[in-house]
Amino acid sequence: MTFREIPDIVVGRLPVYLRALSRMMQEGQSITSSKELGERLGISSAQIRKDLSHFGEFGKQGTGYQIEYLTEQLQRILKVNTEWEVALVGVGDLGHALAHYNGFVNRGFRISALFDADPAKIGTSVGELKVMDAATMVEEIRARGLKVAMLAVPADKAQTVANQLVEAGVKGILNYAPINISTPDGVRVQYIDPVTHLQRMTFYL
């Protein structure tokens, strides 16, 4: 089975499994079961077994899963067993918060380039990184060979910036702008809009 045949909803659950397994390892646990994992995550054990079966056999009936081994396999499947350098475009309040966020460390990602179009921000430092002029973004991203970018720009700028990222060779965009963007085949976009998640949640309240 190729990755194109695997439902995106299944791929979306793999990082959730990986996060729970990492927590178990931190707690000193070495073996788990689909039942225990499911209880932690609110997902049925049958669903977990079905999801993992898309990628191979990782455990034995009656003995469960070796946590370290399953963690390594999920990291390999998600291609986060090596570090991805990430470009961050937009260094406003959200961009600053993302640049300072330590949660990317040791989970496969490192923000290594910051870009903004505001002359007041260009040349300033955020942590160890200097903010570069967005006008040089295509050239810089190409030179560094970056394939992943985060968009933290206003909605009315998001499509233009996305077009530039595609031109620069970026293949994956995490979009925080509250707007859908168009990209060619082969360029993956993921959306993070807290308001839509809040609206989805309040339906149930």
CATH topology of the largest domain: Rossmann fold
Q: Output the strand order for the largest sheet.
A: 6-7-5-4-8-9-10
Give the C-alpha Rg.
19 Å
Shape: elongated
| CATH superfamily descriptor of the largest domain | NAD(P)-binding Rossmann-like Domain
In total, the number of strands is 10
Percent of residues in beta strands?
15-25%
Give the key terms.
about 200 residues, alpha/beta, Arc Repressor Mutant, subunit A, Rossmann fold, 2 domains, seven-stranded mixed β-sheet
Fold and architecture overview:
The chain has 205 residues and is of the alpha/beta class. The chain folds into two domains: 3-77, Winged helix-like DNA-binding domain superfamily/Winged helix DNA-binding domain (Arc Repressor Mutant, subunit A, Orthogonal Bundle); 84-197, NAD(P)-binding Rossmann-like Domain (Rossmann fold), CATH 3.40.50.720. Helices cover 41% and strands 20% of the residues. The chain has eight helices and ten strands. The strands form two sheets. A seven-stranded mixed β-sheet has the order 6-7-5-4-8-9-10. The longest helix is centred in the first third of the chain and has 19 residues, at 8-26.
